[in-house]
Amino acid sequence: MNDEIKFRYNQFLENLSDRLDIPPSKYQQAVERYQAVGKWLNEGEYEGSDGLPSIYPQGSFRLGTVVRPLRDGKEADYDIDLVCRLAFAKGNIIPEKIKHMAGRRLKENGRYKPMLGKEGKRCWTLHYAEADGVGFHMDILPAAYEKAKFIQALIQSGIPEHLAMEAIAITHKDHGEYDWLSSNPAGYAQWFDSVKQVALERIAKREKQLILESTDTLYANVDAVPDQLVRTPLQRVIQILKRHRDARFAGHSLEDCKPISMIITTLAARFYNNEVDLYSTLENVVRQLSAHARLLNPGYILEMAESDFRYIQRNADGTWYIPNPVNPEENFADRWHEDNNRRAKAFFQWVAWVAQDLLDVLKASSMPEIGESMQKIFGEKITRDASTGVFVLGAPAVVSANRHQERHVEIKKPLKPYGHRFEN
């Protein structure tokens, strides 16, 4: 591989992730909106509660892996997810009551009431009008304190106490019936933060300076730029992988089985080894994911699989296991065995596409050729934008060290580390 091409390609990938990301001005707008909703919920009266609610963001907005989603091949509204944990013990209240307490409080606000959609299975959703062509949805997840017995079981299973203590009980409505599920978005976010901490400390000062220079008066100084806007190579790779997935599966026969964002995020974080640049991170993650494709082979020796693979496992009965890092009882791949392993096959087909589209593409002889290939996956506009200062499609490449413009758009439907059914 030509080192100059690799250098330029890495710069192109950074530009690409910038343009997939939410720009600082939109990030600030989103923060102001969820803080306002949080303040309103926090000031509500909830009969029988033991204290104040706890309102906090979760998912890709909290993790810093936001990407504006593609739906039917078109960019859709950003989704911001909030947890609204009311001060009730799970054993002292029914899930239906928690759900409707939060809903009633939102309806009491003259602004939020007309923005509120129908009750969802787990969330209440506020629909914000578009501004500058960018719309927002805010999903508010009502919750209660999880039982101490469940938290103790997490600790005994090896989950650090400070993460286990963040577990909550969320409501789930199915066919008119309400039930409790266990969730831990705050614990998952803390786990993810710990994975990227070394990289964050390495790049934070430089990245914040670039953001400050690109946003004029948005922040007073470098220290005022929030850590949440700094993107490590891990976060950038996840952003690119999520958009690649959406583009590759759009209109495909396997679209209904495309990999969920939680699996992509969890496995990328598991395999991240503090690589210093985006391309090296991508190469490592894809190489390790590709190695697991042999699990599709029914003749693969079970004992070898168990010793070689920790984070994607296939059991003797043919079922698959990808554990939630903060709850080993929650299996993100619990449906992979269904329909002759259709979801597992879709996942490893996607991994092969990533290797072909984002790694093997470096066999091309020039950056313009690589750019032409990128257009087929990410579209002409975003590819041309990301090539600015790196190369010109159809013309000789020119390298520039200036990467940061204000990051272009996007918030993806936040990842939800929840779904493990808890038996009362």
TrEMBL record:
Keyword Plastid listed: no
Domain annotation Cyclic GMP-AMP synthase DncV-like nucleotidyltransferase: ranges: 54-140
Secreted found in the keyword field: no
CDD domains for the chain: NT_2-5OAS_ClassI-CCAase
Molecular function terms, GO-annotated: ATP binding; metal ion binding; nucleotidyltransferase activity
Record field: catalytic activity: GTP + ATP = 3',3'-cGAMP + 2 diphosphate
Gene Ontology terms describing biological process: defense response to virus; nucleotide metabolic process
TM segment ranges: none
Matching Pfam families: DncV-like_NTFase (PF21654)
Name of this chain's protein: Cyclic GMP-AMP synthase
Highest classification ranks of the organism: Bacteria, Pseudomonadati, Thermodesulfobacteriota, Desulfobacteria, Desulfobacterales
